[in-house]
Amino acid sequence: MSGLPAGGLRTSEQPWRTLDPRTIAVHCTWMGAPLGSLALTALATGGRLDARAWITLAVIGAVFAAVTTAGVVTWRRTRYRVTADAIELRTGLFTRSVRAIPLHRVRNVDITANLVQRLLGLAVLRAGTGGGGRGGELSLDALARPEAVRLRAELLARAGAGSTGDPVLATADLRRLRYAPLTFWVVGGVFAAAGAVWRVLDGIGVQPWRIGFVRRAFEDFGHSALWLTIPLALLAVTALGCVGAVALYAENWWNYRLEWTDAATLRVRHGLFTTRSVSIERARLRGVALREPLLLRAGGGASVRAVAGGLGDREANRRRSLVLPPASRGEALRVCDGVLGEPFDPAGLTAHPRAALRRRAVRAFAWCVLPPAVVLAVLGALLTPVLLYCAAGWLVLAAPVAYGLARDAYRGLGHGLRGRFLLVRSGTFGRETVALDRSAVLAWTFTDTPFSRRAGLVTATAAVAAGEDGYRIRDMNAGTAAAFAESATPGMLAEFLEHGEQQPPIKGFVRSS
Amino acid sequence: MARHGQTTIRLRPPRHGVAPRARRWWTVQAWLTVTGPLLLTAVTLLVLSLLFFPGALPWLGPLLLGVLVLPAAGYVLAMPRLRCRIHAWEVGGSAVYAAGGWLLHKRRIAPLSRVQTVDTVRGPLQRAFGLATVTVTTASTAGDVRITGVSDEDAERIAARITEAARLAPGEGDAA
Known about the structure:
The complex is a heterodimer.
Chain A: E1 17-18, H1 23-27, H2 32-44, H3 51-77, E2 79-82, E3 86-91, E4 97-102, E5 108-112, H4 115-120, E6 122-128, E7 137-144, H5 145-158, E8 168-171, H6 185-203, H7 212-223, H8 226-253, E9 257-262, E10 265-270, E11 276-281, E12 285-293, H9 294-298, E13 301-308, H10 314-320, E14 322-328, H11 329-340, H12 354-382, H13 385-412, E15 414-418, E16 421-426, E17 430-437, E18 443-448, H14 450-455, E19 457-463, E20 470-477, H15 481-488, E21 497-501
Antiparallel strand pairs in A: 1-2, 2-3, 3-4, 5-6, 6-7, 8-9, 9-10, 10-11, 12-13, 12-17, 13-14, 15-16, 16-17, 18-19, 19-20
Chain B: E1 7-11, E2 16-17, H1 21-52, H2 57-86, E3 88-91, E4 95-100, E5 105-111, E6 117-121, H3 124-129, E7 131-137, E8 145-151, H4 152-168
Antiparallel strand pairs in B: 2-3, 3-4, 4-5, 6-7, 7-8
Helix pairs in contact in B: 1-2
């Protein structure tokens, strides 16, 4: 950010400046609604206005005159200036008041504009001390947009925000909409909407299958060429889901803005109809989670969640801690950096033992591939041999998919230390890379089962008073888990550690690799 | 990755085991919660079958044995024994350490400086055996340390030690 403007010297002799005169026009926008309704009346009556309409028009005219006069006077009496050490705003018709905020206390400078202001090329600049309440804020309503931008840069450059770099981490970006279809809502949304419609119809006593055209549509569907219509129907559902997901995303993340409003508060604001705003104190911010669900990951996207305490219960925390909606992975990493204040570098994490891959493969096979195959085979043996072929086909198709997913899950496993942070990565359907502040770890838990003990694996859980409360490092090497935990939180485990021979793992369960 | 013969750093088990009475407590608990109900169900089904469907006995008998009787017996025999071997606790100079579980082993360590409260709970059954459960809570639900099956005197000593140590420990504002 460049420092002082070319105009140079800011002394207390700095002249007072006025707001942009177009502000007065903005004040008149309230007339839109009554004038519009009047125009509609005129249209409906064919231009013949009755007495009531004339009275309304006269009232509007009088109010217009009054408001405009007030606006002009307010505009003339409102002055601001930036002196060597403060930003000052002088207002008031009869009682003059001057509000001054020392520049070193300015923590956040916002620029906003509503639709009318945007059309007129205006913007409102708000400078705040972050102290909360109206007292700590000063609002210049409104400036020409270039002037607002220039002033904001100047204020931030001279403010004592002490921030390195831009306090605004991310803002709304239409290009992000392309990641909307890569969320669960593509399919889930359609069913949710269908369910909602069904319930409404059911509630008012309408039984959809009794309605003629619905039944006819179903009958036609049954008689049509199914090999063509079923894929078409699926395609239509997917397209509908995509549209719904994009609409939902747009409503939810309109006007999105993630920023450090001051050195100690991270704020995320978004929403079109409902504006949601969540402020997270830095003291309660324990880290970030980079979330890459399978679909989003395939599309090169990711979303970011803050690992923070004080956001309510688990559900509320999940809902409120999202600081970046699905966006490109590069952008997500950048936001992680900005939230942590340190580079977030998930590359090169320590991989987990091969036994973890075997566990995942066995689990996928035993829980997802085998049961349907067994059921089909048993039914086939009892009823018809066709089902036996089905069982074989299922095995041939599902086994590679299951192994691929297991392999992906294994590749996702990783842990490591990066500066102040402990990094943990796991998951395949919902891959998550979590950076936890090492000083926020309250406790360590080591869990193992008979199976994992034989494989020489252990799951370590770092407890924090934030987010999901416990973050698991799944299937670590049992021989190094304690040492890793100790190095992550020096001194916590020291007195319970002993140096000794590692027990050789039972043959046949752990291959050396 | 198998590094045979190499010295490694391991987490040793906690120093103090549970009270010897705890095994009887766990046995009674097993009878009351799992073994008793399962066996009762098996007996009921068997009696009903004898009275009304004698023909079902040849397949119902083995089924009940496999599904109800053997698991019930296995649980009451194995659980208390394994728990006695695994459950242990230790209050060190700067942290509290507890191990628990029977099939699933869980070892948890929480620094005393992060301790928020120390609760001692005695259920009716535990009171009959003179036992107690000490729960040390931290700010995170994933960080609560439970020490189960210690004698009353031990529980009091543990609670007093941890409370004292937590008071003296340099308090970390974000945790407390």
